[in-house]
């Protein structure tokens, strides 16, 4: 799959209509008083120090990075395989690179993967490249009872043990592993509402895939059995007790 084309061929204006001004392209956390998309990132704030250096691995359209930058004053650097996304983000530095080929040129307090870890074909290669440069890994992604490959979206749905093994083999210790049930609704409702404002002829490529996902979840009770999300914190220190 040509992931650069996959993420870049639709008009930015169309993405803005679907994702809204914050441009969060990840699932939110339901049942909170805050914006559900913001809340998904706010959950990690206890593990991100003020003014720290943060590497956003697979930064998408920049929603999480901008939130961390504005509220915590962090020095954010994003990495994305999409040239269009790298040119779109103006508020922080972005490197246009495949994470499998990326070698950090600086030290970072935190590297975060917000629904991007699942797209990695070789997590060991990526984590080993980061391990000498990054103290803490934050992951928000999908969790399944058994490994599942969704070829259409190039998604590797991992088990809890796979996440732990991959991180520990790369020199990190898992300090927190939280499982989120029933994560679909806020994101699906928001995206479907935005998609319905488009001309049907504009719903192509990845937008078409997103529309099909939203439709199936909303009207056909679609879902992968036992699919959940997880929040993971892994560090190289003993600051946090392992959960």
What's the SSE blueprint?
Blueprint: H1 3-8, H2 12-19, H3 36-42, E1 53-57, H4 63-72, E2 75-80, H5 83-88, E3 93-96, E4 108-114, H6 123-130, E5 134-143, E6 148-150, E7 155-157, H7 160-169, E8 173-180, H8 185-195, H9 205-219, E9 228-235
Parallel strand pairs: 1-2, 1-4, 2-3, 4-5
Antiparallel strand pairs: 5-9, 6-7, 8-9
Helix pairs in contact: 8-9
Describe the structure.
It is a single chain. The chain is an alpha/beta fold and 243 residues long. The protein has helices at residues 3-8, 12-19, 36-42, 63-72, 83-88, 123-130, 160-169, 185-195, 205-219, and strands at residues 53-57, 75-80, 93-96, 108-114, 134-143, 148-150, 155-157, 173-180, 228-235. The protein has a seven-stranded mixed sheet, with helices on both faces. It has a two-stranded antiparallel sheet with strand order 6-7. β1 (53-57), α4 and β2 form a beta-alpha-beta unit. α8 (185-195) packs across α9 (205-219). The chain is globular, with a radius of gyration of 17 Å. The N and C termini lie far apart (36 Å).
Q: Please state the structural category.
A: alpha/beta
Number of distinct beta strands:
9
Low-confidence stretches: none
First-to-last CA distance: 36 Å
Order of helices and strands: HHHEHEHEEHEEEHEHHE
Radius of gyration using CA atoms only = 17 Å
Mean pLDDT: 91
Number of helices: 9
**Strand percentage, roughly?**
15-25%
Shape: globular
Q: Portion of residues in helices?
A: 25-40%
Main sheet: strands, sense, barrel: 7 strands, mixed
């Amino acid at each position: 799959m040509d992931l650069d084309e996959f993420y870049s061929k639709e008009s930015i204006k169309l993405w803005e209509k679907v994702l809204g001004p914050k441009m969060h392209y990840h699932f939110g956390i339901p049942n909170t008083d805050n914006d559900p998309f913001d809340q998904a990132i706010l959950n990690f704030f206890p593990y991100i120090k003020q003014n720290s250096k943060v590497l956003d691995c697979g930064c998408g359209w920049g929603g999480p990075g901008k939130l961390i930058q504005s509220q915590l004053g962090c020095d954010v650097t994003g990495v994305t395989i999409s040239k269009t996304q790298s040119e779109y983000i103006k508020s922080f530095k972005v490197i246009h690179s495949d994470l499998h080929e990326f070698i950090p040129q600086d030290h970072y307090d935190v590297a975060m993967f917000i629904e991007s870890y699942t797209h990695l074909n070789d997590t060991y290669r990526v984590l080993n490249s980061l391990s000498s440069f990054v103290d803490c890994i934050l992951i928000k992604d999908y969790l399944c009872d058994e490994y599942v490959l969704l070829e259409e979206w190039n998604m590797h749905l991992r088990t809890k043990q796979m996440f732990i093994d991959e991180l520990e083999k790369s020199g990190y210790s898992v300090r927190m592993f939280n499982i989120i049930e029933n994560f679909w609704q806020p994101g699906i409702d928001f995206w479907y509402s935005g998609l319905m404002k488009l001309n049907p002829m504009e719903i192509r490529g990845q937008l078409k895939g997103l529309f099909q996902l939203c439709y199936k979840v909303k009207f056909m009770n679609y879902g992968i059995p036992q699919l959940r999300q997880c929040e993971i914190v892994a560090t190289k220190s003993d600051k946090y007790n392992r959960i």
